[in-house]
Design brief:
151 residues; alpha+beta; 2 domains; two-stranded antiparallel ribbon; 5 helices
Length: 151
């Protein structure tokens, strides 16, 4: 904590918040976008690098990423899912809300020991196989399914 106290900082003239110099983004305040390099005193919006819509999109990505990665999904597959969703939103937002997804996740120790029923063929199996989570972006429900090794 003492190392942060000795870090060079200043007070932003626009939002009057304490800003550490190593947190500046392109010489601008990360909170309001005011350029701390300019001396004319005009408050400028930080539009060229970060728009408000981009901020909302980044927050959405973080929550989706954390939600799926906490369930054990591969981070690369999660990022591909997010980029596919972004492409659908740009083309047709109505279709993007109903976009379905399926991600493979690892089974817990308890799941590996218990018998499971295959969601595709209905057979009961104990070892091997894989677990998946599936759903769509329009509902908060995520279905966990098991698939036998023969399917």
């Amino acid at each position: 904590m003492t190392s942060r106290m000795h870090t060079p900082h200043t007070t932003c003239p626009s939002c009057h918040e304490e800003v550490f110099l190593d947190e500046l983004v392109g010489g601008r305040c990360p909170l309001c976008g005011y350029s701390l390099d300019e001396d004319d005193g005009t408050c400028s919006e930080y539009e060229e690098l970060l728009e408000r819509s981009d901020l909302g999109w980044m927050i959405f990505q973080i929550f989706v990423y954390k939600r799926f990665c906490s369930r054990g999904a591969n981070p690369l597959h999660v990022m591909q899912l997010i980029s596919r969703y972004e492409d659908l939103v740009q083309c047709s937002p109505a279709d993007a809300e109903k976009m379905r997804f399926t991600l493979e996740v690892p089974m817990s120790r308890w799941e590996r020991l218990l018998p499971k029923r295959c969601s595709r063929c209905g057979r009961i199996f104990i070892s091997a196989g894989k677990a998946t989570i599936s759903g769509d972006f329009s509902s908060p429900d995520i279905v966990r399914e098991h698939i036998c090794p023969s399917c």
